Amino acid sequence: MSITIRAAGRADITHIAQWNVAMAWETEHKALDPAVLERGVTAVFDEPRRGFYLVADRAGEAVGCLLVTYEWSDWRAGDFWWIQSVYVVESARREGVFRRLYDDAQQRAKQAGAVGMRLYVETENERAQRTYAGLGMERCHYFMYEAEF
Question: Is the pLDDT of residue 44 over 80?
Answer without folding.
Answer: yes
